[in-house]
Amino acid sequence: MENKRKNILYISVGVAFVFAVFLIVSYFLPSTVGISEHADAKIKYITENKNIEVTLDDSDCDELRRIFNGKTAYHDSPSCGFTESASVSFGNQIFMPACDGDEIIKAGLKFISISPKERDTVDKIFAKYGATFPCA
């Protein structure tokens, strides 16, 4: 009986260890951003002086989707600030441009890099709805 309990304990610990390793590895592996074609985009921009929460028109939504879709999301810890108070969401996916204007977007718990031209496009779309960068 004692051996049976030890075996069950060893198997349980082994399964827990494998599961923990899987979670840790999957967190650090890069992934690809995928945004549904049917998800509407909403800008949220809340500061001391502004409280903007608006759904984007179709052309702006498509442009941001084109910029973000297919990008590789990676784990990092950049020094620039990010906040959901200056973000765009597609359904439950939230994208936060760097508040200082860098070409980095926080996508969930990971980050994506965009080109300076793409960052300029993101800034122009936000500005169209009254949201400006830098927001820090």
Name the descriptors.
single chain, alpha+beta, six-stranded antiparallel sheet, 3 helices, 38% helix, elongated
Question: How do the helices and strands line up, and which of them pair or pack?
Answer:
Layout: H1 2-28, E1 31-32, E2 41-46, E3 51-55, H2 58-68, E4 72-73, E5 86-90, E6 93-97, E7 104-107, E8 110-113, H3 116-128
Antiparallel strand pairs: 1-4, 2-3, 2-5, 5-6, 6-7, 7-8
**H and E order:** HEEEHEEEEEH
Radius of gyration: 20 Å
Read across the widest sheet, the strand sequence of neighbours is 3-2-5-6-7-8
Indicate the mean pLDDT: 86
Structural class: alpha+beta
Overall 3D form = elongated
Low-confidence stretches: none
Structure description:
- By secondary structure, the protein is an alpha+beta fold.
- Helices cover about 40% and strands about 25% of the residues.
- The strands form two sheets. Strands 3-2-5-6-7-8 form a six-stranded antiparallel β-sheet, with helices on one face. A two-stranded antiparallel ribbon has the order 1-4.
- A hairpin with a 6-residue loop joins strand 6 (about 95) and strand 7.
- About 25% of the residues are buried.
- The mean pLDDT is about 85.
